Amino acid sequence: MRTTSTQPSTAAAAQPAGDGATWWRQAAVYQIYPRSFADTDGNEIGDLKGITSRVPYLKSLGIDAVWLSPFYPSALADGGYDVDDYRDVDPKIGTLADFDAMSAALHEAGLKLIVDIVPNHTSDRHEWFREALASPKGSPARDRYIFRDGAGSDGSLPPTDWEANFGGSAWQRVDDGQWYLHLFAPEQPDLNWNNREVCDDFLTTLRFWSDRGVDGFRVDVAHGLAKDLSDPLPTKAMLDESNDRHDGSNALWDRDDVHEIYAEWRKVFNEYDPPRTAVAEAWVHADRRARYASPDGLGQAFNFDLLEAEWSPDEFRTIITKNLAEARDSGASSTWVLSNHDVVRHATRYGLTSVAGDHGDPRERGKQWLLGGDDAPTLDGALGLRRARAATLLMLALPGSAYIYQGEELGLQEVGEIPDDARADPVFFRSRGAEKGRDGCRVPLPWTRDGRAFGFSDTGAHLPQPSWFGAYSVEAEESDLESTLALYRRALNLRHRLQTDETLNWVDDAPEVVHFTRPGGWRCVTNFGSEPITLPGGDVAVVSGPLRAGMLPPDTTAWLA
Ligand code: NOJ
């Protein structure tokens, strides 16, 4: 066995996990999608009091922090990522007083709180957008957004051929004939970040939540804010071409000047003790991710590479090595994600057969499975869950922070059987059903084996829960020592004790085995092969599935400590 080592950055080596200003570096962060977590007032939508009531559950998991997806007033055109007011709580899910009570309960339990911030676009019900619509062309109110005259002799064509992320044109026409830009749904008009009032207002919002005790921010579409909209506007083909260059020259995405915005934000974060943290949701080329994670900027950026990877030892090894090196260079720690509210759950992704139409992309495979039909991938749920458990245990042994999406600790599968008339995701509507969208990972959590809404609510659930949910409920899994919930609890609680500095040493075993050690004699071994393997010496502290005659079976991870 040969070992190779990653070098710790000086900052990382000096900082034990979980302390003061560096708590985030190796934190396990649990993502709550508030509307689907726990409903206490019977309106079928999860609420902040529901989260407060489940703080003991959150604490028992062994996580360090909670990240709340948007909870702001919203018409839910995009699940809350269409914000009416950045400094309030949606009355459907609570009040500011509920927020304070929830924040106090989390903090009392020793958990940090990260909130989602959505700066690329507001909702079309935001007071600024209403004012823009009521104001004339060229007015200061319109300048907070991106309005343009249309093309064609009478301006009846969109200004450009750009497509929105959820499908259709990226431009929407208003009553006086002008068009506004929306890179997502029409209900999400893009803000103009060249407008000083927009910049200042977000600084106020960051202070508003920081003053209320929020520990950090997850920044939505962090790579989209800065845009070069000088005339002539590029065509879609020109955008695509510059996108492939990854050099900051694209007019809409990942421009270098976006970091001027985050440098200002960092000054606000550093007004607090400990400084507020931030993590960028930036779908950029891996080579450019470090810019978002710079200590002078947001400080950390999501790395979605594992979420996009096949179940393959080579891919996992390459991704881990590359990301640890990148994180070291940027001064940040790495982030690891297998599931979130935008993708098919990993217990399902790992159980799908590959088909020609998925182009070797597991996320695409998930979408094809949701669509169904003769050529769709088929699902082996048991295989998917076995691999998901192994992948999670591997992820939790890595240096850096790990993001866990609500329900994955129960081993939940994606819900495929949502009738079209119950769907809520704009992806489904804007693509005219060509994509099913993201509702299947947003179905309200099952807390009890049976009963109305499986304990999510006394009345019902805003997305239909399938009958098999009961078997994955917290109640069912609490009493089962082999459950996925028990595995997450064991691993997360142990991780607290085991995480020290941010180094990892590779151990070269067979090609189908991913094996590394962490300081203090902690070792993680994953068998990606098809035959059981002999484990190295040491006590097995956690294992993602039962050992076979003392050997590590296929699709299984063990920690030895
Ligand atoms: C990324 C969020 O994760 C997703 O849910 C949302 O639809 C888009 N940003 C637009 O805000």
TrEMBL record:
GO terms for molecular function: alpha-1,4-glucosidase activity; alpha-amylase activity. Keywords: Glycoprotein, Glycosidase, Hydrolase. Belongs to the glycosyl hydrolase 13 family. It comes from the Bacteria. Residues 31-442 form the Glycosyl hydrolase family 13 catalytic domain. It comes from Spelaeicoccus albus. This is Alpha-glucosidase. Gene3D superfamilies: Glycosidases, Oligo-1,6-glucosidase, Domain 2. InterPro entries: GH, GH13_cat_dom, O16G_dom_2.
